Amino acid sequence: VFISDVGGLNNLKNWLALRSTSFSNQAKLYGLPYPKGLLLAGVQGTGKSLVAKAIANEWNLPLLHLDIGKLFGGVIGESEFRTRQMIEVSESLAPCILWIDEIDKGFSGLGFTNDSGTTSRVFATFITWLSEKQSSVFVVATANNINVLPLELLRKGRFDEIFFIGLPSFQERKEIFTLHLSKLRSNTWQNYDIDYLSKISNNFSGAEIKQAIVEAMYIAFNEKREFDTNDIINSIDNIIPLARSHQEELQIIENWASAGKVRRASN
């Protein structure tokens, strides 16, 4: 997976392109500091995890995946030890990308958990490292619900930038349909009515668009024929997108992004 495999998100892509050679010897000689990382927040299924994988491939760096929940152990002191171990391992492999998936699940409700302060100590160690690290570890953290994250994590200096990835626009949906269909049917993808499919899939995430195409393929394969535009249309009609089933939650996230507190990944 490369950045070119991700539909839309032009602002984010441009930001990443400016830093694509920041771990090179030339950048070091120039005096450029290593970029710290970024936080990708927004709607489920919009490609946040895909971007993390794409950065590693695009920059030709090893990718480490941290499940934030696995930092926490039941034995006293174990969580803090695992956190220090995570930092040591990532720094020993630098330059590298450290992908922290769903960071909001690890640090939500900080200060309200009955764990004798373990979460607070792990969090303090983590954000101190984010602020002070000099190593070439680029942290990519993803969050579905940024409202539950502690404000200290969102302050400047922890990450270089926070990007909001919302539901794709009409033009971005066209890019996503084109990417998927051209991979699946490299010789015949132009036969699909991508304009119409993009129009009727308003409020669909990238993952839901992919789901609609795959569902259409299952139907046609079962009937021993090639899948066509009508099959995808029927799939779209039968899928209830997250934007409809979780409308209020998504509106809260969208309002937060519209307040100008973060950069939008798309134009």
Secondary-structure map with pairings?
Elements: H1 10-18, H2 25-30, E1 37-42, H3 48-59, E2 63-67, H4 78-92, E3 96-101, H5 103-107, H6 118-132, E4 137-143, H7 151-154, E5 161-165, H8 170-184, H9 194-200, H10 206-222, H11 229-238, H12 242-245, H13 247-258, E6 263-264
Parallel strand pairs: 1-4, 1-5, 2-3, 3-4, 5-6
Describe what this molecule looks like in 3D.
The chain is of the alpha/beta class. The chain has helices spanning 10-18, 25-30, 48-59, 78-92, 103-107, 118-132, 151-154, 170-184, 194-200, 206-222, 229-238, 242-245, 247-258; strands spanning 37-42, 63-67, 96-101, 137-143, 161-165, 263-264. The protein is 49% helix and 12% strand. The longest helix is centred in the C-terminal third of the chain and has 17 residues, at 206-222. The chain is built from 13 helices and six strands. The model has no long low-confidence stretch (mean pLDDT 91). Helix 4 (78-92) links the parallel strand 2 and strand 3. A six-stranded parallel β-sheet has the order 2-3-4-1-5-6. Helix 8 (170-184) packs parallel to helix 10 (206-222) and helix 10 crosses helix 11 (229-238).
